[in-house]
Amino acid sequence: MFKIVYSRTDVGIKRQNNEDYMLTYSLDESCTLYIVLDGIGGASGGEIASKTAAEKTLEYIKEHYQEQKIEDMLKLAVKYANKCVYEIAKNNKEYKNMGTTIAMLFVKDDVGYHISVGDSRIYELTDNAITLLTEDDTYVNALLRDNIISREEAKVHPERHVLVRAIGIAKNVNFDVNKIENIKGRRFLLCTDGLTTTSTDQDILLKIADSNDEDICNILVDMANEKGGVDNITVMYVKV
Hints:
With 240 residues, this protein is an alpha+beta fold. The protein has a single domain (4-133, 166-239), classed as Phosphatase 2c, domain 1 (4-Layer Sandwich), CATH 3.60.40. It is built from 7 helices and 11 strands. The protein has helices spanning 45-64, 70-91, 139-145, 151-156, 193-196, 201-208, 216-226, and strands at residues 4-10, 20-28, 31-40, 99-100, 102-108, 111-117, 121-125, 130-132, 178-180, 187-191, 233-239. The strands form 2 sheets. Strands 2, 3, 4, 5, 6 and 9 form a 6-stranded antiparallel sheet that branches. The chain has a 5-stranded antiparallel sheet with strand order 1-11-10-7-8. The chain is globular, with a radius of gyration of 17 Å. The mean pLDDT is 93.
């Protein structure tokens, strides 16, 4: 299957080290994995968590690709990654409370599957619209779902970046595997919150309107830095 993928990760302006991680891997001509992650935990913990989660997810998929149903394989792969990160944090005091978000797209033939844990996101792009496919696992988003606060209040809530779920924080993690039929020819954007903290969905759509595929990631990272670069920024553009 013909696919286009461009990606860029950047430390941003305010941070000293980059705790984000990204990975693309083709298992064969019909199947490709795309992942972006945002590590948490400070010092080197975040970097270790994001890199470990990506590598362990891929390790599991490569080992079980031919023998398990895809939805089951993907769920078990991320759960395996969660266990590995959790065990490292549990057994090393310097990595206590480390973890990572994950946004993952897996494409097999004309079907896609996506998983997210945390607040890294996956969007689908069309010429005139941007659609968020994932849901942020944040405290404020939970308040929104329960109609406790308004969307305007959510934008300025002091705890809007507090995660309620991440990879490696707890022994077990729950999430859904979501399916996308007829995926050929469609365009997707995977990103960490270094982009979405400072830019709205409409900002993203307007900024990349009429842009060439190869320029999209650079345009979005530059926009995030122009808006303060308050966090690490990772962007992956996929055209299936």
